[in-house]
Each structure stands twice: as C-alpha cells, then as structure tokens.
Design a protein that fits this description.
single chain, alpha+beta, 5-stranded mixed sheet, 5 strands, binds FE2/S2 (inorganic) cluster
C-alpha cells in the first residue's frame, strides 16, 4: 500500500516555526526535527509529558490506552505527545502545551 504524506506545520501561537512532510516511520518529534523546530524531550517513551504540545487541527494516532504522560483531560484540550505519536493526516501543531 502506498503511503500518502501529510504536511505537518509547527506554530508558536500564530507564528509558524516551520513545516515538514510526514514519513510512515516518523513520530511527530522526528518531523519537528526535520522542520528545524525544537520541542523538548526527556523520556521519549510517552511517560514524562515533556514533549507535550497542542494539536490545533488535523489528526494524530492517539492510542486508546493513553501513555502515562497524557490523560483524557489533556487529550480534550488537544494535548499530544510528540515523542511517541504519528500523524494520520495533515496537522497544525502549537508547540505551546495546552496547560
Ligand atoms: S519525552 Fe517523555 S513523554 Fe515524550
């Protein structure tokens, strides 16, 4: 099956910091790196919440069983963990976390 790439754009508030295309194996943090956008990380395994950002629009593969670094309140606020999640469509992402 062919993979359709998605355009991932990174913002800080209304300022666009950069953008890059998705690749099947890349988590959002890797796409941010390609776009030269710095998002802090620590555990890189979904536990600490350091890499939390806010999904403004688009879709991301959020596992039904949330990783320890995320809870349903944060998900409702658009929270996603960039170290362990992949986009499933084109996304606009604000690097400022929801809380
Ligand atoms: S870096 Fe720890 S949850 Fe992503």
């Amino acid at each position: 099956m062919s993979y359709s790439r998605h355009l991932i754009r990174f913002f800080r508030g209304s300022e666009e910091l950069g953008h890059a295309e998705s690749e099947p194996d890349l988590n959002i943090i890797d796409i941010a790196e390609i776009a030269n956008v710095e998002i802090p990380t620590n555990c890189t395994s979904g536990t600490c919440g350091t890499c939390l950002v806010r999904l403004v629009s688009g879709s991301v593969d959020i596992p039904e069983e949330l990783p320890p670094g995320l809870d349903s309140f944060l998900v409702e606020e658009g929270g996603i963990l960039t170290c362990c999640m992949k986009p499933t469509g084109s996304c606009d992402i604000d690097v400022i976390p929801p809380i």
